[in-house]
Each structure stands twice: as structure tokens, then as C-alpha cells.
Amino acid sequence: MQKQLIERFAPVIRTLSAAELDGAQGLNDKLRLARDGDIEICYAPFEYINPQARVVIVGITPGRTQMLNALREARKQLDRGSDLVTTLVAAKQTGAFSGAMRPNLVNLLDRIGLNRLLKIPTCDALFGSAAHLVQTTSVLRNPVFIRGENYNGTPNMTRQPLLREQLITHFGEDAKALPSALFVPLGDKVTEALHFLADRGMMDRNRILDGLPHPSGANAERIAYFLGNKSRSALSVKTNADKLDQARAAMIQRVSAMA
User: Can you tell me whether residue 172 is helix, strand or coil?
Assistant: First the structure.
């Protein structure tokens, strides 16, 4: 695990004001890693890699709320005198897939049988007693903002030079450190990014378990159908039932074959 960034930014985090830890103007200036026009990348303490992880759950990039939660936890740890690794572990665990997204994610992972593969009662344990089995991360590990707003996949990270560099340099570290883990991408943009890396030999395509609906609450209908809680006849025209059926069957088959 590279510690250069936390070594560089720990002194900055120690001096952040209460207002800055709540997102006050000027915070990004102190944590900026890079900028290209409207694109701004800021540091957040998310570089810890769990070497025991058997599954890696991959989002797109930390949002501002997740960034602030991690910074506050890092500050708390540093004020206690914790070492840098302990600080990174605590910051990483703070708020990982919290709120309404977590039960959706757990239900989706259980539906494809990942809990049985990992020999745990339910994937909810990945956020508690079985946390040693999981790595939560983002393809763009450090928070990306477009004109101050959370990055949502536009511009395309595999084509925009600064974002592509972040993807290859930082997420590539995760992939290399966990060559035997299963990578579960959340959303089409993340799936595209993982296959971009696989095309370049930076990760094993056979370790990418794609096809899961994004667990966001905004995706409720697709999640409900994938889980079998909504009938095909009740779906709106925007939901492609055939695609979801194919993805679910393929994922169940792949996970079962690994057991």
C-alpha cells in the first residue's frame, strides 16, 4: 500500500477547521490533487487495501459526503495519536455503502449466491463480522468534482486524460494487490472502466463479476425485478426485463461454479 498521500496530507488534515470538516469553502483548495478545466480531484483518505479481501465492491468515486465523513474520522484518529495505517483503516470503514444503498446491495449480492460462496449467512456480514473478506473502493479512488458537483460518469473516465490517469494509477494499485479477488462493479460506467483495465492486462477479466443493478434507491424498479419482488407485467417501459434476466442467470451460474 502506498502511504505517500496520507503522509503528505496528514499534517493538512490535522489543521482543518471545524467549518472545513463540514465542507466550508476553501477545503478543496487544501486537498486538491489535480485540476483540468472544470474537473477537480481532491484527496480523501481511502487508499487502504485489505489484503485478505475475497470480494471487491467497486463504486465510481467517493461523493462529497463520503469524503467529509472520512476526513472527520481521519482527524479523530490523528488527534488520538493513531498511526497512519490505523487512521486509513478507520477512515475507509466510515460510511462505506451506508444508508438505503446497503440493504439493496446486500440483497442483490445474496440473490446471486455470493454469501454461499463466501460461506457467510448473508452479505450483510461484510459490513460487520466478515469485514475482513471485503474491500470497498472506487475506480476513481479520490473524489472527483465537475464544477463543484459530484462526478457522475461524464466525461468518460477512460477517454479524459486526467481521469484515465487516476483510474490506471490508483485503481490499478487495488487490482494488482488483489489478483485473486472478485470485483463487483456498481453501474455501467464502472463496468466499462474495469473492462478497460482488463483490455490492457491490468486485471483478470474472469475476476469481474458484472451485471448487478446499481443499488441506488433511484434504481428501485430494476432492483425489485432482479430480486424477484416485482413481476415482469408490472414493469415500466424503461426497464429491460430480458437484460436483467440474462444478467441474473449469468451471475448466479458464475458464482455457483466458483463455490
Answer: helix
